[in-house]
Design brief:
This protein is of the alpha+beta class. The protein folds into two domains: 47 residues, no CATH class; 39 residues, no CATH class. The chain is 16% helix and 8% strand. The protein contains two helices and four strands. The strands form two sheets. It has a two-stranded antiparallel ribbon. A two-stranded antiparallel sheet has the order 3-4. It is elongated.
Length: 100
C-alpha cells in the first residue's frame, strides 16, 4: 500500500484556542484545513477573525486599536465593537467612534 503524508493548516485563536472551521454553504462540506497558513488566515479573516500575520483572534477575542488615534479597548467580541460604534474595514483596519 502506498500513502503520502499531507500537511494542512487551520487557524487557532491565541486567546481561547478555538479552531477555525469555515461554515458550510448549501450542501457543500465546510473547509476544515487549508494548504498554507496564508490561505487559512485569509479565509478566517474574511469570516470575521482578526489577524495581523503574527497573532490570530476569533470573533469573541478582538484586540481593538484605532488606526487614527491609536486608542485601544479591552479584548471584546467583534459584534460588541461594531455595536459600540467601531468601524472595521475589510482589511482589518479599525476606527474608533471618535475618529469616524
Amino acid at each position: 500500500m502506498s500513502y503520502r503524508e499531507l500537511t494542512y493548516w487551520r487557524p487557532v485563536c491565541d486567546d481561547c484556542g478555538l479552531e477555525y472551521v469555515e461554515e458550510p454553504w448549501d450542501d457543500e462540506p465546510p473547509d476544515r484545513a487549508w494548504p498554507s497558513p496564508r490561505a487559512a488566515l485569509e479565509t478566517a479573516r474574511a469570516d470575521g477573525w482578526q489577524t495581523d500575520g503574527e497573532t490570530v483572534h476569533c470573533t469573541w477575542h478582538w484586540h481593538p486599536r484605532c488606526a487614527g488615534c491609536g486608542r485601544t479597548e479591552p479584548v471584546s467580541s467583534l459584534g460588541h465593537l461594531e455595536e459600540s460604534g467601531w468601524d472595521i474595514g475589510d482589511d482589518g483596519t479599525m476606527w474608533c467612534p471618535d475618529c469616524l
